[in-house]
Design brief:
The chain is an alpha/beta fold. It contains 11 helices and 9 strands. Strand 4 and strand 5 form a beta hairpin. Helix 9 packs parallel to helix 10. The longest helix is centred in the first third of the chain and has 15 residues.
């Protein structure tokens, strides 16, 4: 696999005159932006196209505040069905590779920004995680703001009610027409501006504002590396494009980079 030009000099990372602590501090900062393609090898449905239809409903018409206000039970039936499809899925080698990278690099040198709501990054063990679109396993009260994890499958009551005020609970995810969480988005832009490597994994990253993250990282000097099963619009500006199933290509890329950076695995 050709790695192309690298922004960080691996020879300097391995410099014999530096102490082990100093060498670790000089390791690159890596940020990964992940999308549906990283979870596809785990069997998570994409819910797109004809195969994404549920009871003849277009999910894009269900994942809106208006749909929830109109028929909260219908929306929750769809999310309950999704949760039942996802609960048996396990993280794959790509998820675990990102966890290994986080553990191998110095604290604060690795972050994962995800557009996914399936919880597989958390299940794999990622800690420095920024979920742009929320978490399907968390519920939030539309009245009092109560928020809690709820992994019961199936849910015993639809729609579920808030234990604090008896208001309606909704999935704590970002719906169409809603803004991304301000704090998470700000943190995402902060980490990409400091990145040496920006990995875009399993997403075309063409939907704003996530699309801006890769561009901002590259403009601030990061090496932009794309992992996908096919070329995307981002491929035209990427410094490196790695095609193939990400559960196979990402571990290989990391093995080569770890060796280049002098990281013992």
């Amino acid at each position: 696999m050709g790695l192309g030009a690298q922004r960080v000099d691996s020879g300097k990372v391995k410099g014999s005159g530096a102490s082990p602590t100093h060498q670790r501090d000089r390791l690159p900062r890596v940020v990964a932006l992940t999308g549906a393609g990283i979870s596809a090898p785990s069997g998570v449905p994409t819910f797109r196209g004809d195969e994404g239809l549920w009871r003849r409903h277009d999910p894009r018409q269900l994942a809106t505040p208006e749909a929830f206000a109109r028929d909260p039970r219908l929306v929750w039936e769809w999310y309950d069905w999704r949760r039942q499809r996802i609960v048996t899925c396990e993280p794959n080698a790509a998820h675990y590779t990102l966890v290994e990278m986080e553990r191998a690099l110095p604290p604060g040198h690795m972050a994962v920004i995800t557009q996914n709501v399936d919880g597989l990054h958390q299940k794999a063990g990622s800690r420095n995680l920024l979920p742009l679109h929320g978490d399907i396993w968390t519920v939030r009260c539309v009245q009092c703001g109560y928020r809690a994890e709820d992994r019961r499958v199936p849910l015993p009551e639809l729609p579920p009610r808030c234990p604090r005020c008896n208001g309606l609970l909704r999935p704590d995810v970002v719906w169409f027409g809603e803004a991304l969480p301000y704090t998470v988005l700000n943190q995402a832009f902060a980490v990409v501006q400091a990145a040496d490597y920006m990995l875009v994994i399993g997403t075309s990253a063409v939907v704003q504002p996530a699309a801006s993250l890769a561009v901002v990282a590259q403009r601030h000097g990061a090496q932009l590396v794309e992992f996908n099963i096919e070329p995307t619009p981002l491929s035209e500006i990427a410094d490196e494009v790695v095609l193939g199933s990400v559960d196979e290509t990402l571990p290989i890329w990391w093995a080569e980079m770890a060796q280049r950076w002098g990281i013992k695995r």
